[in-house]
Amino acid sequence: MNKLSTSSKNSMHTREITGAILVLVLIPCILFGNWYFFSLILFLSIVGIHEILKAPGPNRYNFLIQGTVYVFVLSFIFWGTIKNYLRTGSFYVDGRLYANDIFVSVTGIILYALILFLIAISTTKIQLSDVTYLFTIGIVFALGMQGMLFLRFFPNNSGLIINGTRSFTPFWGGTTTFGHYFSDYYSYYNWNQSLASCVLFAFMLLGTWISDVGAYFFGTFFGKHRMNPRISPHKTWEGFFGGIGVSVVFSLGAAAIMEYCFHMPLVPGLIQFADSDLLKAMGLFGGHAWPMIVLLALMMPIVGNIGGFLFSLVKRQFGLKDFGKLFPGHGGVIDRFDSVMINSIALSIIIFLTANGWSFVA
Question: Do residues 285 and 291 touch, judged by C-beta distance below 8 A?
């Protein structure tokens, strides 16, 4: 077992205190959802974009570049909410903020790229590498934040959009439709849907951060073999596999407790342990839902590590230790939510495809 130095002990204590405070702030926003969670994502997005712009140097980009990045990246993040309002004339479904998909406007992406290139053409200070960096990292960051919104607000839907009027007999008897399955499920168990819908996002957050915690402790005490010292010198294979084991046990255990003790699965009928009448009616997986939840639990620590390496690569490119200092011991928004963002994208895509019957035909 490795011995801890004084600086390592102090760093560990700082991380623990900051982590505890962060969790205390996050819990009510996640539980209450709606505008509380929306405001949290808006705050994190603004700070995160600031970190992206400052990474190459505090005075690298002028107000025109900064304004362009803020406008387009924020519009990408909240495009789903904007699109729902334009389509229905309301931000709500039955009094809840909701999300149907994870999507970035193709028109917006093209305009974003064109404006960045026009600015680069008109000034010698902005190089092609700047355009590539701001475009790529902006899209990834936007999809990550939008994925967080999707995971929190998708279970707020009344049900599935695809074949929404199709009816079938659920396990509680009577008749329901694809379009009202979620709301009917929560009504059957007398749960407030705005509260119960937080389980999916909490599952992702738990699986991601428990992996980080497990990797940190296993790496600190047992780490000998570096994974990729060029990009992330402190990550070890011992920490990686230790983090996976801890993450899978905690995330599956928490999901099982919520489903079997409180009748609050991750997504009713879609992502759960019990066989699903909804999946059976959709003709998916023979109605067996458990392989998907196991896949997600196994995937989160692996994909989360990829997210960590991705943003670490950017930091090494610019010679940074951290993107910011908002969270002492953890760094900035991107440092703390890098794995969360990439996991949010991955989980959102899988859940969106499952909700649409894994159909790739528009």
Answer: yes
**Alpha-carbon dihedral sign for residues 111, 116, 119, 120:** negative
C-alpha 100/C-alpha 94 separation (Å) is: 14
Could you tell me if 279 and 289 are in contact, meaning their C-beta atoms sit under 8 angstroms apart? yes
Burial string for 215-238 (b: 16+ CB within 10 Å, else e) reads: bbbbbbeebeeebeeebbeebbeb
Q: DSSP string covering 142-160, please? A: HHHHHHHHHHHHGGGSSS-
pTM: 0.93
Domains of the chain, residue spans: 6-355
pLDDT tens-digit series, residues 117-142: 999 999 888 999 999 999 999 999 99
CA distance 66 to 228: 33
Beta strand spans in 57-175 (E): 92-93, 96-97, 167-168
CB 209 within 8 A of CB 344: no
SS3 state of residue 284: coil
CA distance 41 to 39: 5
